[in-house]
Amino acid sequence: SSSMIKIIQYFIRYSLLFSLPIAIFMILFSKPLILILSTPNYLEAANILPIVSAASIVLGIAMIFHQTLYTLGKTLIYRNVMLISILAFLVFAIPLTYLFAGSGMAAAFLIFAMILCSLTFIKLNQIIKLSIPISGIFKIIASTAISMSILFFLVKLTTGILIGLAFSILAFALYFLLLILFRFIEEEDIQIMRNIVIYKLFDNQLAK
What we know:
Helix content is 85%, strand content 0%. The protein is an all-alpha fold.
C-alpha cells in the first residue's frame, strides 16, 4: 500500500540522516578515534572500522526491508532471505577470515549485509512496488560530502584534539544547515514528527 511505502521511505531517509555522516566520520578518522577511545595496541582495528561502518549502514536499511516483509505477513520469505544471507556469510567468512583475519571477517559481514539488503529489496519490490527516496538520499550524500570534506581539510591543519573536536562539532552543524538549505525536511516529515510527539505525550499521560 501507499502508506506502507511512505513509512519505509521515511525510515530509510531518517536512518541515513544520522548513520551516513557518522559512518563517514568514523571511516575518515578511524585512527584518531581509536587513539582517543582506546590505546595504540588497538590501532590494527583502524583497518576494520571503515568496513564495519559501511556494513552497518547497509544492514540498517536491510533490516527495515526485512522487518517490513514480516509486517506484511510474508513470513516464509522473511525466513528464507535471512537463511540465504547467513549461509552466504558462512561461505565467505571462513576463507576470508583465514586469509585476512579480522579484516576478512569484517568483509564477510559487509557481504552478508549487502546480500540481505538486495534480497529483501527485490522481494519487497515484487510485493508493493517499492520506490527509493532518491532526492532525499542525494541531499544527505551531498551534505555529508561537503561537511566531511571541509572537516577533513581543517583537521589536517591541526594536531590538537580539542581543536579537532571543535571542528567536528562545527562540521556536523554545517551538515544539518546544508540539509535545511537543500530543503531535506518536507511537510510530511513535520506532520509525522508532530504526531509522534503527540502520541508520546498522550502515552505518558495514560501511564500516569
